[in-house]
Each structure stands twice: as C-alpha cells, then as structure tokens.
Amino acid sequence: MKLNTNYLGLALDNPLVIGASPYCDSTYIAQQLQDSGAAAIVMRSLFEEQIDAEQRALVHHVEGSADSNAEALSYFPSYSEYQLTPDHYLRQLDQLKKAVSIPVIASLNGCRPGGWTDYARRFEIAGADAVELNLYQLVTDPTVPGDQVEADMLETVRSVAAAVRIPISVKLSPFHTSPVHFCAALENAGAAGVVLFNRFYQPDFNLEDLEVFPQLKLSDPTELLLRLRWLAIVSPHLRGSISATGGVHSTEDIIKALLAGAHTVQLVSVVLKNGPRFVATLLAGLKNWLVDHGYDSVEQLRGTMNLCRCPDPAAFERANYIKILQSWKV
Ligand SMILES: Cc1cc2nc3c(=O)[nH]c(=O)nc-3n(C[C@H](O)[C@H](O)[C@H](O)COP(=O)(O)O)c2cc1C
C-alpha cells in the first residue's frame, strides 16, 4: 500500500501531519509523534506582534525612543507571555531538526508586510523544511475595504516567498469572498500550497460581570464539513498542495479530506485528546480502509470527490442550499 504523498514538494511517507501546536515545544514528544507515524510536524507560530515587539525593544534600547503605540499593544500578550521568544524558537527548530528525520515546518503568523517577514529566512537558515505562513486576521476597522486586506496579505506572501528558497504554505481563514480566486492569487504570489482553514476561538460573554472572555475549546468533527466543501471546490484549481486543518478526528475524517482533494491532513485536537500514540491508530485505520476498498495508494483516492470529479457537483453549490431549505416540511 502506497501511503506516500507530496506536500509542498516534500516527499512524505503518509498524509498525516501534526498541525501547529505546542507539541514541537518538546523534542521528546516530537520524536514520539514521529515514532507513531506522523509524516511531518508544524511548530507553533512565531507572531508578527512578537517579532515587532522585539525589534521595537531593540530600537528603544539603542535610541531610547518612546513607544507611540503602547496603548494598542497592551491588549496583546506581554513579551514574556509568549511561549517561545524568537531566539528560543530558532534554537528549538535546530533541536527538532537534530531529533527527528521527518520534515519540520516552522510557522510565521501575521498578515501585514513588514520587517518581521525576515524571520522566514532565519527559519530557513536554522533548517526548516518549509514555512507555514498563517494569515489570521480580524478586520474590525470600518474604513478598511476587503480588497485592501487581501492585497496586504498577498504582499506579505510575496515578501516571505522572496526571502526564502524553501516552500511556503499559507494558512487561511474561511472568510474570503472568493476563496478559489484568492488561493490562485496566493500561488501566483509564491505560495506552494494552502492550509484550509484557521479556527476562530470565539470569545464568550460572562453575564455576571459583563466581561468578554476568551476560551480555547478543542475542535470536533462537525468542523470538518466546512473544510470538505472548500477542499473539494478549491483543489481542482490549484497547481500546488492543499492541506486540511480543523475537525479531523478519525480515520473516516482523514479519508474524506483526501477524497475532497487534500494532500495532507493536519491533526491537533485529536492528538491533544488521545495522545501522540493515537497517530499510529489513525494510520493503521487509513491503511486498512484503503485495502478494504480496493485502493493501491493514497494518490489513487485523492480528489476523487472534488467538485470536478464527484457524481453530484451541485451538492457543493447553491443548488444544494435551496434543495435543503425546501426539504423541511412541517
Ligand atoms: C493549543 C493550541 C495551540 C495552537 N497554536 C497554533 C499556532 O501557534 N499557530 C497556528 O497556526 N495554529 C495553532 N493552532 C491551531 C491548530 O494548528 C489547528 O489549525 C486547529 O487546532 C484546528 O485543527 P484541529 O481540529 O486538529 O485541532 C493551535 C491549536 C491549539 C489547540
């Protein structure tokens, strides 16, 4: 059974990638994940704000300048609250490269062009096999139009792509007006692949003290459905790679993502819930399913349910929405 897949030009033994998370903070756990069959690992992100803060601190130190942006920045974690400082991140990347033989993907998180994108080059020098650029953004400024947001994102991708020779993937949110067009534009800007989709950690209201509080809830498999639809719609149009993140919890979820066109699936919540060894269970399940259903390889299965190849493409489109609403009778 050939489980291998090509992701961002990297030859992976199978499609199971550990998504960006605290797992790579420990080389010991990274080794456990590799031993359990993970084909690649993504480090947690280094954030634009974190790099900017370091660079500002340096300028402050050298020039003694006042921080004009201090109020806006006070909402972000203080420098010491980030788990890995930029220097520590590069050292951890170096350690991981020595500890495991599977590809290590470093993650940069930000969306506006700026000096912080230079870190992609430092990741490359420290041995990263690829960079995952997470464009997570929440636009709350009413004066900023959507096309400006996407133009900034594309410029950011161009500057990261120009800084490195290793491949870059772009992790996106689902809230783009025309996702297929935007993914193609990301490829033209230098991305070797896209990762669909970021999860949004929705804050809740506390009714007693009328405060908004952030919360981190792990995903559940219902979140995969949004990914499946867009994987199926986007994948036929891309030259590069596509990875699914969000709601992959079982062997069946992995198979669905592959059928929709993913080259890899990223696992985080499922591993946080069940432990690193669960990767081996998922991998064995994938192998068994492919054998039982007469497939010789992952490649043979991949994309066979995408928008161009599935028997009922309308199921992904507006027609399905209308049909579903009409089907409910009282
Ligand atoms: C504790 C935790 C930390 C995470 N840190 C990052 C991060 O630093 N960068 C990033 O791009 N995604 C991060 N993520 C998001 C995951 O990579 C992933 O996209 C998301 O959890 C959805 O996948 P899942 O359903 O398998 O959990 C984090 C998720 C969790 C649960």
Ligand species: flavin mononucleotide
Tell me the strand order in the biggest sheet.
3-4-5-6-7-8-11-12
CA radius of gyration: 21 Å
- List low-confidence stretches: none
Percentage of helical residues? 40-55%
CATH fold descriptor: TIM Barrel
First-last Cα distance: 50 Å
What percent strand?
15-25%
- The SSE order reads EEEHEHHHEHEHEHEEEHEHEHHHH
Structurally, the number of domains stands at 1
The overall pLDDT average reads: 92
Shape descriptor: globular
- Got a strand count? 12
CATH architecture tag: Alpha-Beta Barrel
Main structural class: alpha/beta
Q: The biggest beta sheet, please?
A: 8 strands, parallel, barrel
Given this structure, which CATH class is correct? Alpha Beta
CATH homologous superfamily descriptor: Aldolase class I
Task: Count the DSSP helices.
Answer: 13
How do you describe this structure in short?
With 330 residues, the chain is α/β, with parallel strands linked by helices. Helix content is 41%, strand content 16%. It has a single domain (5-327), classed as Aldolase class I (TIM Barrel), CATH 3.20.20.70.
Notes on the structure:
- The chain has 330 residues and is α/β, with parallel strands linked by helices.
- It has a single domain, classed as Aldolase class I (TIM Barrel).
- Helices cover 41% and strands 16% of the residues.
- It contains 13 helices and twelve strands.
- The strands form three sheets. Strands 3-4-5-6-7-8-11-12 form an eight-stranded parallel barrel, surrounded by eight helices.
- Helix 1 runs parallel beside helix 4 and helix 8 runs parallel beside helix 9 (251-260).
- It is globular.
- 40% of the residues are buried.
- Residues 19-22, 44-45, 107, 109, 134, 171, 199, 218-219, 245-248, 267-270 line the site of flavin mononucleotide.
